[in-house]
Design goal:
- The chain is an alpha+beta fold.
- The chain has one domain.
- The protein has six helices and 14 strands.
- The strands form two sheets. Strands 1, 2, 3, 4, 5, 6, 7, 10, 11, 12, 13 and 14 form a twelve-stranded mixed β-sheet that branches. Strands 8-9 form a two-stranded antiparallel ribbon.
- Strand 5 and strand 6 form a beta hairpin.
- The longest helix has 25 residues.
- It is globular.
């Protein structure tokens, strides 16, 4: 008698899973739709396998490889806590781009947010970075970090767009600012693999860590941070020396 009741309940539960699961899965977006084809790196820099280290102000270039163009380009900037506490503003080509109010404490395992924010125009992102990996790359394991994401350019192509980014502090600090980029590549294939439940066209292109920039104090203060960054700062010092 008991089995007669259990069997119909099991069948009903299975049918619910069959019909509900595809709908739920349709809205659970992960990194499968993301391509790391954007580069935001110092001018005349050399690939190192890690974020390319430079001082502030930083002469940077942004472009994409592979299919394009990339539209609706935003910058994702990550700061260590000393930089956030001392931050005055971040400028691009002499114009204020971000202030402390644009940053928030990272409290999640991945950034930027998956979901869109209509109030800011942020479209959501299929590209997300593991916070643990970010902390590892900037040598801030176990420490708080802050992030901000803001619209930068309507479009980038394979031809580099040059710009100067400066991190301006109100007091002395161990400056670390990781510069990453996000954007949107539109194609029929991109639409095919995105869930219909997303009301916006989320970012599906980004810069990998090795195609990004880590801004640190200018060359005069690099000796203070040489130990945490090891070989990366050694490379930077050599690079700057060759340019002089």
């Amino acid at each position: 008698m008991r089995r007669k009741f259990i069997l119909p309940i099991f069948v009903l539960f299975s049918l619910i899973l069959i019909f509900v699961s595809p709908v739920a899965a349709e809205c659970q977006v992960n990194c499968s739709g993301c391509r790391s084809t954007i580069q935001v790196i110092p001018v005349d820099s050399t690939h190192t396998g890690d974020p390319i280290v430079t001082g502030t102000p930083a002469d940077l270039m942004i472009f994409h490889t592979g299919s394009g163009p990339i539209n609706n380009v935003w910058l994702l900037i990550v700061l260590n806590e000393p930089t956030y506490n001392a931050l005055g503003q971040i400028t691009i080509n002499g114009t204020v781009f971000m202030t402390k109010a644009d940053f928030q404490l990272v409290t999640t395992q991945k950034i930027p947010p998956l979901n869109a924010n209509p109030a800011t125009g942020y479209p959501g992102s299929l590209c997300q970075y593991n916070v643990a990996a970010i902390k590892d790359k900037i040598k801030e394991k176990g420490n708080p970090i802050y992030y901000g994401v803001k619209y930068f350019l309507p479009q980038i192509t394979k031809t580099p767009t040059l710009f100067t980014l400066a991190v301006e502090l109100e007091s002395s600090a161990n400056l670390k600012a990781l510069i990453l980029a996000l954007g949107r590549y539109d194609s029929s294939k991109a639409f095919k693999y995105e869930p219909d439940c997303l009301p916006y066209r989320p970012f599906n292109a980004c810069s990998s860590f090795s195609k990004s920039t880590l801004v640190v104090p200018e060359i005069a203060t690099l000796a203070l941070t040489a130990a945490p960054f090891g070989g990366a700062l050694g490379f930077y010092a050599i690079k700057r020396k060759k340019q002089n």
